[in-house]
């Protein structure tokens, strides 16, 4: 019997958790599924591991020899999906027993277009909430002159709360957005909205997708009986850092924010955008630069040094992005640089 679901795994911001994440899926998933793995220029050790596993487990492996933005990676897989549902999951996520059963049950019972799990964050699995659904829509409000001003309304439910503290409040709930850490999607939605928008390189891609789903009458649910955990833990290795610095580069973030504003006719001078411009480079600085400075100074890390290092890092980040752009193959050559490895024998799990 053909599976209902195709799981699509793609890189989020690093490669070093590939093995743990993939093994988690095979260990904790009892629903039959097909799997497509998109590998965007992972280092040799990870590349070889994925090649071996694709033959052993029977999944399709799609690889490029250059780094991919998240929507670019997902779009490489979507045309190969021929099942009723598609499950997007990042390569730094651990799943728990029954996770997919619960998502599928919610989709079937509610006829939802998109279902997200309770997404936790950290090394302590299933303890701290990252996302339990939320609200995301474009609203119009009159300004001082009486003219309507468009703005983004966005609320994350229970963000950074301990699961134990709000357990009684976590119920299946219709909401307005999910995140690509993990989400179950009815494949037919792409017939209505097209592929994911590759104008979003590093941010707001999930909001854009969910706005489009809502605009065509689709529905989104959060199913908290399905629990997954996003594990951010960057390794200080050149291939890992190269991708991470590009993934959260100033250039990609600015381009994504400007594109989001243009696409949805939003003013970039409101608080929503100012907050994000003011935090430019935050992920790089929190994920690598500040821990690195603490390491170098044996925990001292004075403010003057941190400020100087951040200024220098912004300049280095521009060089990293410029270098990537020079090496990136032209669009007409992309088909020649994508490697698709089909398993010797299709295995359904």
UniProtKB/TrEMBL annotation:
Q: Which Gene3D superfamilies match?
A: Spore Coat Polysaccharide Biosynthesis Protein SpsA, Chain A
Q: Do you know which SUPFAM superfamilies this protein is assigned to?
A: Nucleotide-diphospho-sugar transferases
Q: Name one Pfam family in it.
A: Glycos_transf_2
Instruction: Kindly give the InterPro entries that the UniProt entry links to this protein.
Output: Glyco_trans_2-like, Nucleotide-diphossugar_trans
Looking at the record, the residues that make up the Glycosyltransferase 2-like domain are: 12-120
Could you tell me what this protein is called? Glycosyltransferase
């Amino acid at each position: 019997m053909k599976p209902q679901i195709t799981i699509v795994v793609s890189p989020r911001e690093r490669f070093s958790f590939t093995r743990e994440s993939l093994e988690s899926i095979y260990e904790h998933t009892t629903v039959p599924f097909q799997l497509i793995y998109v590998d965007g220029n992972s280092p040799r050790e990870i590349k070889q591991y994925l090649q071996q596993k694709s033959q052993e487990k029977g999944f399709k492996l799609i690889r490029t020899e250059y780094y991919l933005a998240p929507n670019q990676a997902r779009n490489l897989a979507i045309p190969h999906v021929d099942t009723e549902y598609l499950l997007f999951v990042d390569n730094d996520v651990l799943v728990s027993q029954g996770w997919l059963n619960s998502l599928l049950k919610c989709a079937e019972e509610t006829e939802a277009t998109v279902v997200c799990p309770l997404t936790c964050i950290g090394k302590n699995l299933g303890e701290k909430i990252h996302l339990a659904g939320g609200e995301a829509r474009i609203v119009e409000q009159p300004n001082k002159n009486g003219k309507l001003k468009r703005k983004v309304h966005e609320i994350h439910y229970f963000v950074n709360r301990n699961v134990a503290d709000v357990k009684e409040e976590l119920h299946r709930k219709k909401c307005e957005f999910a995140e690509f850490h993990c989400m179950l999607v009815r494949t037919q939605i792409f017939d209505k909205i097209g592929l994911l928008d590759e104008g979003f390189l590093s941010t707001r891609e999930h909001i854009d997708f969910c706005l489009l789903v809502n605009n065509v009458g689709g529905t989104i649910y959060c199913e908290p009986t399905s629990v997954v955990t996003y594990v951010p833990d960057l390794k200080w290795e050149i291939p890992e850092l190269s991708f991470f610095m590009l993934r959260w580069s100033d250039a990609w973030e600015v381009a994504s924010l400007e594109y989001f504003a243009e696409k949805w006719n939003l003013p970039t001078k409101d608080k929503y955008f100012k907050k994000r411009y003011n935090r430019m480079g935050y992920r790089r600085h929190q994920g690598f630069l500040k821990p690195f400075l603490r390491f170098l100074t044996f925990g001292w890390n004075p403010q003057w040094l941190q400020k100087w290092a951040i200024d220098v890092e912004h300049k280095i980040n521009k060089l990293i992005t410029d270098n990537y752009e020079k090496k990136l193959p032209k669009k007409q050559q992309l088909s020649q640089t994508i490697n698709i490895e089909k398993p010797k024998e299709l295995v359904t799990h």
